[in-house]
Amino acid sequence: MSRTPAYERCVRHLVSTILTAGLTLAAAACGGSPSSAGSAQQNGALAFFRCMRSHGVLAYPDPGGDGLLPKKTPQQLGGGASEYESARGACIHLVPNGGRPSPAQVAQYRSVMLTYARCIRAHGVPTMPDPDSRGYLDIGPGSGVDVESPRFQAAYRRCRSKLAP
Predict the structure, then answer these.
(1) What is the pLDDT at residue 100?
(2) Residue 127 to residue 146: CA distance in whole angstroms
(3) Contact, 13 vs 35, CB < 8 A?
(4) Which are the contacts of 14, defined by CB distance < 8 A and separation ≥ 6?
(5) b/e for 95-115, b at 16 or more Cβ within 10 A?
(6) pTM: predicted TM-score of the whole model, two decimal places
(7) Which residues lie across from 140 on neighbouring strands?
(8) How many folded domains does the chain comprise?
(9) For residue 64, which of 45, 92, 87 has the smallest C-alpha distance?
(10) What gap in Å lies between CA 68 and CA 119, rounded to an integer?
């Protein structure tokens, strides 16, 4: 099935948000004090970001003070989707807990995605589902949610701020 640029942009934003939330939450969970959690987050993020560059995602930047992933497409970061996924697979071990969130972090992420889904529905997309128990949304081709429709695109522009971790 051929995917359109609008669908790909939406999926990339959601994937970036998921990765950002997972890495940020996992990193923040490590360490005994807020300063050590921040330090673990920054050190893990810095090692991850540098590893991404060494594995072919050439424009991957160093983290800012928040340690968050950049909100850019793989192409903007100097590679394609397959190069990005390959690099991510090689580097994810550098992030505390392998980037996997705890059950509490999953619940927090699901809450963010539930707020986002409700916002999309409130802005004219009644078929937008709630996230599953892991926080994943099943949208796109075959799901009943046409992410290319003008109505969805308008709702997405109004609601994407709800995706911020």
Answers:
(1) 73
(2) 9
(3) no
(4) 137, 163
(5) bbbebebeeebbeebbebbee
(6) 0.50
(7) 145
(8) 1
(9) 45
(10) 24
Condensed to tens digits (0 to 9), the pLDDT of residues 93-151 reads 887 777 677 788 889 889 999 999 999 999 999 999 999 988 888 887 888 899 999 99
18-73 pLDDT, tens digit per residue, is 444 444 443 333 333 334 444 555 666 778 888 988 998 888 877 665 555 666 77
| CB contact at 8 A, 25 and 45 | no
Structure tokens at 20: 């950002």
* Domain extent at residue 39: 5-163
Query: Which amino acid is it at 137?
Result: L
The reported pLDDT for the residue numbered 35 is: 41
Structure tokens at 5: 């640029």
Phi and psi at residue 73, in whole multiples of 5°? -80, 160
The two three-digit tokens of residue 1, written as one number: 């099935």
Pick from 20, 68, 15: nearest CA to 46: 68
DSSP assignment string, 94-158: GSGGGGPPPHHHHHHHHHHHHHHHHHHHHTT-TTPPPP-TTS----BTTTTB-TTSHHHHHHHHH
**Structural contact between residues 147 and 7, judged by C-beta atoms closer than 8 angstroms:** yes
Whole-angstrom Cα Rg for the chain? 16
